[in-house]
């Protein structure tokens, strides 16, 4: 899968988590679907998938404004999060991504930049065993300007002591790719473990 890519030429490999390393987006989207129905918010699975990387609270506010709806953002976020947490332990690492992480562990520094909260991200990393391979984590709680701003990935590069211009970002959404490029980084689209230059 990754033979065509020379990952050792980079200062660091930086991964998004949900939908890139871990097959957790369906869990998020299922929680979104139920909550949207309960709060009267139109639900578009494909659109919400593309908003992966933006914290729930910000996404609800954006969607409510788009649809001209007055929604209790706190209540919505609380409910969606509760539904997601009921299933969070079902999240698994995409096998090709596991292979990639294990192969380059100890050879190229690696970090994660996610739109998830630190608590949820740490739980997934611990549960899947990824925490033994990737110690640098930047979550939604650590950044003010979330994706598509580059701050998340720039912070990961800083923590890894890497030059952003020589980092490679793995992402599953255009918003995430945009964030990587805005940080001056090389980007790869990672869809269920399949990699593609963008």
From TrEMBL:
Instruction: List the protein's name.
Output: Beta-phosphoglucomutase family hydrolase
Listed A to Z, the keywords are: Hydrolase
Q: Member of which family?
A: Belongs to the HAD-like hydrolase superfamily. CbbY/CbbZ/Gph/YieH family.
Q: Show the PANTHER family listed in the entry.
A: FRUCTOSE-1-PHOSPHATE PHOSPHATASE (PTHR43481), GLYCEROL-1-PHOSPHATE PHOSPHOHYDROLASE 1-RELATED (PTHR43481:SF4)
Nucleus listed as a keyword: no
Name the species this protein comes from: Aeromonas popoffii
The molecular function GO annotations come to: hydrolase activity
Record flagged with keyword Hydrolase = yes
Q: What Gene3D superfamilies does this protein map onto?
A: HAD superfamily/HAD-like, Putative phosphatase, domain 2
């Amino acid at each position: 899968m990754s033979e065509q890519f020379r990952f050792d030429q980079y200062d660091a490999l930086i991964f998004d988590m949900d939908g890139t390393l871990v097959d957790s987006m369906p869990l998020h989207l299922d929680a979104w679907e139920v909550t949207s129905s309960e709060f009267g918010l139109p639900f578009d699975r494909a659109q919400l998938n593309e908003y992966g990387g933006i914290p729930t609270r910000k996404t609800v506010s954006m969607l409510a404004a788009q649809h001209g709806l007055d929604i209790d953002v706190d209540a919505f976020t609380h409910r969606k999060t509760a539904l997601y947490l009921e299933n969070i332990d079902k999240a698994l690492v995409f096998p090709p991504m596991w292979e990639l992480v294990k192969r380059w562990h100890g050879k190229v520094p690696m970090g994660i930049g996610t739109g998830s909260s630190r608590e949820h991200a740490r739980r997934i990393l611990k549960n899947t065993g990824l925490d033994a391979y990737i110690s640098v984590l930047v979550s939604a709680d650590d950044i003010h300007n979330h994706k598509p701003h580059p701050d998340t990935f720039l912070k990961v590069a800083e923590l890894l002591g890497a030059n952003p211009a020589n980092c490679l970002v793995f992402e599953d959404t255009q918003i995430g790719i945009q964030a990587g490029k805005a940080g001056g980084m090389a980007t790869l689209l990672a869809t269920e473990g399949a990699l593609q230059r963008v």
